[in-house]
Amino acid sequence: MQHGYFDDNAREYVIDRVDVPVSWTNYIGVKDMCAVLNHTAGGYLFHKSPQYHRITRFRPNGVPLDRPGHYVYLRDDENPDPACDSLLPDFWSLSWQPTAKPLEHYCCRHGLSYSTYMCDYGGIRASQTHFIPLDDPIYLIDIELENISGKARNLSLFTYAEFSYHHIVFDNQNFQMSNYCAGSSYENGVIEYDLFYEPEGYQWAAACFEPNSFDCLRDSFLGVYNTESNPAAVQNGICSNSFEKTGNHCAALHKRIELAPGEKKRFVFMIGEGRRENAYDLRAKYSKPETRDAERARLAEYWRDKLGALQIDTPHPGMNTMLNTWTLYQSEVNVIFSRFASFIEVGGRTGLGYRDTAQDAMCVPHSNPGKCLSRIRELLQGLTSRGWGLHLFEPEWFLPKEQKKTPVRSPTVVPMPDTSDMIREDLRDTCSDDALWLIAAICEYIKETGELSFLDEQIGYADGGSGSVYEHMTKILDFSAEQVGETGVCKGLRADWNDCLNLGGGESAMVSFLHAWALEYFVELCGFLGKREDGARYQGMLEKVRATCERELWDGKWYIRGITKSGMKIGTQESDEGKVHMESNTWAVISGVAERSRAVSCMDAVNAYLYTPWGLMLNAPSFTVPNDDIGYMTRVYPGVKENGAIFSHPNPWAWVAEAKLGRGGRAMKFYDALLPYHQNDKIEIRQSEPYMYCQFVMGREHTAHGRARHPWMTGTGGWAYFAATHYMLGLRPDYDRLVIDPCLPGDWPGFTAVRRWRGATYNIEVFNPGGVEKGVRHVTLNGSKVDAVPVCPPGSVNRVIVEMGGV
Ligand code: GLC
């Protein structure tokens, strides 16, 4: 079953059947202000932080699943509802919900940082586009109405959003205080919402029109026993001009409209950050339709520029659609809004996750170098001088005093932990993988931008003191070298990448492989910088790690996942449960540790034990017997999340591993299995949006095998993009060259790509006349044969022809 389709020309996903099984969301905004919005305009808005600067409210995990949101209602002021015997007024929502009035036509177009909802009902054609302009903190709903009924119409337009208490805690508990700390007022057409106890506690809302009536009090607009489905004000055709200090607040504005036959009219509803005084200029500016059109064009240009860093044309339509638009979009949203704002996580966690942010920043330096760099800097500040990263932290903790915002003051006493409490010397909260990802993120950033000087930048450590970026990198590598268990393999600590594998002093195969991978990056960097001594030192460390891994972790056919603190091996041929694991086997290959025959054997085991048509499972068979020496994963239901689900994030690791082995057909088999695009017509099983990777898909051992959960905010986006572009298509920037080393299915005749790199454009044509899976026979640059594609002058446009085949 299908609920929509990809419109590649518009770079939109079009939902034309509204009853999707779960919310299909989009992210509006690209800088500080962000709304998470679904296919019925349900969702919420925040400024900078979904944790402590929420603007509109969301009732998570609620019934129905999408309340409230940013809504537009229309009411027929003359004719009663034709579906009712009584004289109930006829009103509907432009996004179907919340009234759920059956529409004659509905569609939602989720695009790049905007969503448009269109509907036809009772002779009125309506559309509304939600977006946030690039430079102003203002959320806009741009509305157009057209009278297609052939007769004059009198309508009422209502716009509605419910304000939130800013801090998620105040919004969800202790209402004996929260309910009395919020107020609203109306003046000169502008609603002001104020959280008086907060220094930055103001928002405003307005429309382009002078309203006929308004409500600032939620319960006045809705009516105490009504809901957003049938607000009392909409039923009555008029709001009650309510406002008050204390209570729950909203921004409801009502306008009576006359539409002649065939007439079209545009309106706008706005929610802005800041006080009423800020509203007047912005209201005047955005009341002009030309300004809104121009801002939408700027937003489109912003995305065109990003997408222009790489566009591909391959024989695989799904890969084209996903890499050219959706997977990059997903990766960008992760790096910009970092993980904790969605319908699944509604902002209850602090700041940045160390490993997640490092991986996100590694994947898109070509399209968002600025944000990747600022994320990398934040992570460097969250590194302790001992070389481990704070697993979860707020970048603001490390800002100089004068740049820190005044903290949100709680109206009641809440004990506040001191920053120093976050740095626990006993490593209780330390994850063994966290900081290792940063090495690759830094190197990839430099390979993309050429900014070697970044390595000399001085950055503070979380626990005091400072050092260069280069020194931070050495601390990370040294920490992993020290933190080894009895066999010499890295300790698992609180967790490694797998949050639910809690080995403590036991040992993690994955982390030792990651250590080797990070060391390889660093040794390569030392080589490029001519730092011979460090190069030799870390090369020595790398060789030791390799030898330890090969000695301790090989199990005859594949690599084990780890060793518990009591010495039990996890993931051996003798194991009944958790026999084969993705993380250790893919990383054995990616890290370059596994010699060829072992690498082939362990990836064959991944294929044999973990492959399903929905993607690769994380491990199999799932655990059924709780074992706290292994960790929480043994207490998760079989086939779910970290216990044998198709955990999406590691799937791209298998694509990289297969590409490194030169098996392009196998890499594509794995790529295709996970690809949401292919599941567009299987929504009755997949349920989640087909334009986004999800955190996981239920595994073979679950009754709902194939059901996808937790879209958008998952490292899968970044890794899928990185693995497919860098290793399958093989387009990899290096310090002084652009590597082009594809690994393709043998039946691909080739592909083309346009890559922007360091200011130059490379028009790349790859030919595969012999139908090989890997191997480049020769490369020409602007007609001349070259050994490698060098950095070309900024502004230049270059033609690169790559012929694959036996060398
Ligand atoms: C979640 C976490 C991520 C972790 C993964 C596997 O996606 O955000 O940090 O690596 O689960 O446990």
How would you describe this structure to a colleague?
- The chain is an alpha+beta fold.
- The strands form 11 sheets. Strands 1-2-8-9-10-11-18-15-14-13 form a 10-stranded antiparallel β-sheet, covered by helices on one side.
- Strand 13 and strand 14 (190-194) form a beta hairpin.
- Bound molecules: alpha-D-glucopyranose.
Condensed summary:
This protein is of the alpha+beta class and 807 residues long.
Layout: helices, strands, pairs:
Layout: E1 4-7, E2 12-15, E3 25-28, E4 33-38, E5 43-47, E6 70-80, E7 89-93, E8 105-111, E9 114-121, E10 124-131, E11 138-147, E12 153-162, H1 168-172, H2 175-178, E13 183-187, E14 190-194, E15 202-207, E16 213-217, H3 218-222, H4 232-236, E17 249-259, E18 264-273, H5 276-287, H6 289-307, E19 310-313, H7 317-337, E20 352-353, H8 354-363, H9 369-381, E21 392-393, H10 436-449, E22 458-460, E23 466-468, H11 469-482, E24 491-493, E25 504-508, H12 509-529, H13 532-552, E26 562-563, E27 569-570, E28 580-581, H14 582-590, H15 596-610, E29 611-612, E30 615-616, E31 619-620, E32 646-647, H16 651-661, H17 664-674, H18 683-686, E33 694-697, E34 708-711, H19 716-728, E35 731-733, E36 737-740, E37 750-757, E38 760-767, E39 776-781, E40 784-786, E41 789-790, E42 797-804
Parallel strand pairs: 38-42
Antiparallel strand pairs: 1-2, 2-8, 3-4, 4-5, 6-7, 6-12, 8-9, 9-10, 10-11, 11-18, 12-17, 13-14, 14-15, 15-18, 16-17, 19-37, 20-21, 22-23, 24-25, 25-26, 26-27, 28-31, 29-30, 32-33, 33-34, 35-36, 36-41, 37-38, 39-40, 39-42
The structure holds alpha-D-glucopyranose (GLC).
Residues 353, 355-356, 497-500, 642, 695, 714 line the site of alpha-D-glucopyranose.
